[in-house]
Design a protein that fits this description.
187 residues; 45% helix; nuclease; endonuclease
């Protein structure tokens, strides 16, 4: 029996620090490929448009280097500070644009979905997420916080896509699945 394999790129968007994580899946097995962050800082004299270009170029470089077949980006909600919400939305937009410009299909999940899928608890903290990602990918040490979230997004999509694939074998759905995972999106 042939098992399906896929390389997935997870993106945890942020204006100052965007995390990325790349995993390979082979059936239910998960294999770590790479992870890291793309940093931008207004302290370096970069204005917002330049910082967004840094994110776009950084993701384009990650895509070129690791050649993923699928991408995943976090759906972000920030309600406390409207200015921070707008900046984060622009950073997320730059990330999504880079993924689509590189012809990658994009799935999206909320932080709650990510935490439930990886840690089994929607209120899991950063340290718990880092530890669960370390365990699931059998890493020798803890990944950074942003990289752990990005890897967690890739893991979440690997789990969801396996489930949707199994469902499709029993009851075929439309080719484009929208909101199939409690408000997550797959395009």
């Amino acid at each position: 029996m042939k098992t399906s394999s896929m390389r997935i790129l997870g993106i945890d968007p942020g204006l100052q620090c965007t995390g990325f994580g790349v995993i390979d899946t082979e059936g239910a097995a998960l294999h770590y490929v790479a992870s890291g962050t793309i940093q931008t800082s207004p302290k370096d004299g970069a204005l917002l448009p330049e910082r967004l270009k840094i994110l776009f170029d950084g993701i384009t470089e990650v895509v070129a280097r690791y050649q993923p077949e699928m991408s995943v980006c976090e759906i972000v909600f920030v309600n406390v500070n409207p200015q921070a919400t707008l900046l984060l939305g622009q950073a997320r937009g730059a990330c999504l644009t880079a993924l689509v410009a590189n012809r990658l299909p994009v799935a999206e999940y909320t932080a709650l979905q990510l935490k439930k899928a990886v840690a089994g608890n929607g209120k899991a903290g950063k340290p718990q997420m880092q530890e669960m990602v370390r365990r699931l990918l059998q890493l020798p040490g803890l990944p950074g916080k942003d990289a752990a979230d990005a890897l967690g997004l890739a893991i979440t999509h690997a789990q969801v896509s396996r489930t949707l694939s199994a469902i499709n074998k029993v009851s075929p759905q439309q080719a484009r699945t929208h909101a199939a995972y409690k408000a997550g999106r797959v395009y």
